[in-house]
Amino acid sequence: MVTLMDEVREKKQEIRNEIAAFFDALDDEVLAANTTIIENRLFEFANFLESKIVMLYVNAENEVGTQNIVKRAFEYSKIVVLPAFDPARSTMKLMKVDNPDKDLTMGPRGILEPNPAKCKTVPLDCIDIAIVPGIAMDEKGGRIGSGDGYYDRIIPDLPMTTRKVGLVFEGQLVPQVPMESHDKHVDIIITEKRVIYKI
What we know:
It catalyses: (6S)-5-formyl-5,6,7,8-tetrahydrofolate + ATP = (6R)-5,10-methenyltetrahydrofolate + ADP + phosphate. This protein is of the alpha/beta class. The protein has a single domain (4-197), classed as 3-Layer(aba) Sandwich (Rossmann fold). Helices cover 28% and strands 23% of the residues. It has five helices and twelve strands. It has helices spanning 4-25, 28-42, 46-50, 67-75, 150-154; strands at residues 53-55, 79-86, 91-97, 104-106, 112-114, 120-121, 129-132, 136-137, 143-144, 163-167, 188-190, 195-197. The longest helix has 22 residues, at 4-25. The termini are far apart. The model has no long low-confidence stretch (mean pLDDT 94).
């Protein structure tokens, strides 16, 4: 018997496949140019400029690249916090990174993350703004991630005042993300064409 939940998961997987095809078809130059536009929009965004402690992410496949965003955040004197993942528990810890060239190590998901030997854990209630990755999003702030639920678990524990900002390309926007009860929304989405405030 196919349950509603199975249908939602199937639909999410279909969307992930569509987005993977979108990325495969993207010209490298267009990808680089649009990534830069999103990055510049973020650095013009008042909520970001006013915040001191910034939660960022190191991008996985089919997510907006953040290598430069992380570097630039230090130039803007931000305190940079990145997630370290624990796949066994499906949880993540937020850790303060002082030097992205020295403080990161390859994590269990095959992406760079803070090295616990060099980085200190940061309490969630200290985060001023949370930049959240997504494989797909809709204009209401619904998001589809990798499917492991890391961000869905952490978003509700962030303070109400912490802005949750999603970064995606226009091609990653879908008419409606199929949501499950544990799925969490972002407040604002930045694309290469616009800034979308949740309706």
